[in-house]
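stuck on this:

***
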Amino acid sequence: MASLYISEYRAQPIDYNGSAVPVGQEPSIATQKISISGTSAQSAAFQSTTRFIRAHTDAICSVAFGLDPVATTSDARMVAGQTEFWGVAAGQKVAVITNT
């Protein structure tokens, strides 16, 4: 079954020059796995300290963000094997639906 894998982060690592590295500071503070189908499915609400997420999909899908999001095929599209980082607010969720 197709899935969207979510890792939640509160911070980015800092390099030896004091600059933020554009990845999440491991370990993540939470992870979620959402099944992708022809019906919009929501994640659980993000943790109170979550500031950005890493999303990886193993299938073509569309995602939407909000307090009660419903994903449609008109929303942001991801291809199979794609990984993205998005800034989010605590309490928000991500919704996912299959796409072509």
Q: What stands out?
A: The mean pLDDT is 97. The first strand starts at residue 3 and ends at 9.
